[in-house]
């Protein structure tokens, strides 16, 4: 490259009247001015210079070391939609919610159209209801109930007794055992089972009512009345509780208190034929026959009165001659 530059420099600096060394000493018929020759040579000189520059440039490129085979330029390609992995933090959100806010609206429209073309997929998560496993005690109680439905009371009593030994604090097991004993007329055993339960839960209403039934079966109505009176505040609005207390008052000839209890019960259940019958019996025992007959007529006027109570009310009205 430097050689070409030197040649060009010598040609430009040579004077116009000089001749080349090969032509010195010769005569020409018509000498040509040097400035015209110089004008004719300039384009060729530029062409020679350009060719020389291109040759030198190609030489430099060939001298550079080629790229090793191990160097591979990898152009990142977009992942197919099926291989897109969403971050864990957005796993439960739709794609529209986690898309960058800087995306243009047109892109969202295209996405929505693409999703609309696909098969609709429900966004609601599938709820799987997992029921808690039944405890061994509850399994025993269920088995005892099944035996009672099959009228296998002895087997049920044996199973419930074992269950209560394993879990003496289990209220349902104790209640079921006491009810089964009472239905089998084993009032003494039921009374013992209920006393143990009341020592743990003195105000448990189910134990109290079963205890009263056990005492009635043991021919101890006054003890039953005492239990009911001591806990009447717990069941002031319990019609069954008040009815049981009124019935015990009537059985023990305490008709004054029986009338009070039945009137309180009828305020809560005015269409109870059983309460009207109990009230009529106590009023008749107190000598209030007119009020008693009126109560019996109420029993006849109630459509839901049982045939037995209707028959009893009609007999009492006939006896009174009204």
Give structural attributes.
Serine Threonine Protein Phosphatase 5, Tetratricopeptide repeat; 15 helices; 0% strand; 322 residues; 63% helix
What's the gist of this structure?
The chain has 322 residues and is mainly α. It is built from 15 helices and no strands.
The count of DSSP E runs of length 2 or more, i.e. the number of strands, is 0
Spatial shape: elongated
Category by helix and strand content: mainly alpha
* Biggest sheet record: none
**CATH topology heading of the domain at 236-322:** Serine Threonine Protein Phosphatase 5, Tetratricopeptide repeat
**Oligomer designation:** single chain
Please, how many helices?
Answer: 15
The residue-averaged pLDDT reads: 75
Give me the Rg, rounded. 58 Å
Strand content: under 5%
Please identify the top-level CATH class of the domain at 236-322.
Answer: Mainly Alpha
CATH H level of the domain at 236-322: which superfamily?
A: Tetratricopeptide repeat domain
Low-confidence stretches: 15-39, 67-118
Order of helices and strands: HHHHHHHHHHHHHHH
In angstroms, what separates the terminal alpha carbons?
151 Å
The portion of residues assigned to helices is: 55-70%
User: CATH architecture of the domain at 236-322, please?
Assistant: Alpha Horseshoe
Please describe what this structure looks like.
The structure is a single chain. The protein has about 325 residues and is an all-alpha fold. Among the domains are: about 135-220, Alpha Horseshoe (Serine Threonine Protein Phosphatase 5, Tetratricopeptide repeat); about 235-320, Tetratricopeptide repeat domain (Serine Threonine Protein Phosphatase 5, Tetratricopeptide repeat, Alpha Horseshoe), CATH 1.25.40. Helix 13 packs antiparallel against helix 14. Helices cover about 65% and strands about 0% of the residues. It has helices spanning about 1-15, 35-65, 95-100, 105-115, 135-150, 155-165, 170-185, 185-200, 205-215, 220-230, 240-250, 255-270, 275-285, 290-300, 305-320. The radius of gyration is 58 Å and the shape is elongated.
